[in-house]
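User: Before I run my own analysis I want an independent prediction to cross-check against. Here's the chain; please return only the structure tokens and, at the end, one sentence I can use as a sanity check.
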Amino acid sequence: MTDSSTTGRCDCGAIAGPLGECADYFYAILAEEQADPQMYRWHAAVVCAYLLQHPARAHEKYLDVQFRLLQLYLDKGLDALLRVQAHQVARNKHGVRSGYDMAPLAEYAPLPGPGSPGPFRAGFSGLPCGDGGFVSDGHQAYGRRIQTIAEATVESWRSLTA
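Assistant: Structure tokens:
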């Protein structure tokens, strides 16, 4: 990651915000989610978008699934993403099958490549974080901001094939 004290930019191209670079926002979100079940509903979208915007921090073999999960979220909404996520967790707990069940994601485009897009029109260091944390103006407003980040992430990755 780029040192924001000298460049003021994250490795994704975003300008550092009041909390620092995107990683600082990401870890603050993860911590805040632990105490807020409503905020936690967006956890999968947050993780997928963050890792796709910062692929050097991700495991390359999972980026395709994360890209498809974001497409599902944008296409069918948060409840659909939560259903697919719950299906995977239940499947993994039973140990019946190994690997990820790609059937719910089959209709979505694979991760474009090679390369990595950026900068993104919306990122984590642009999130407002007031006295009430990331949801100081409500969970729905927070959800809309996460959706905007997800849209910007998918849009930028798709630009690699244009």
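Sanity check: Confidence is low (pLDDT under 50) at residues 1-5.
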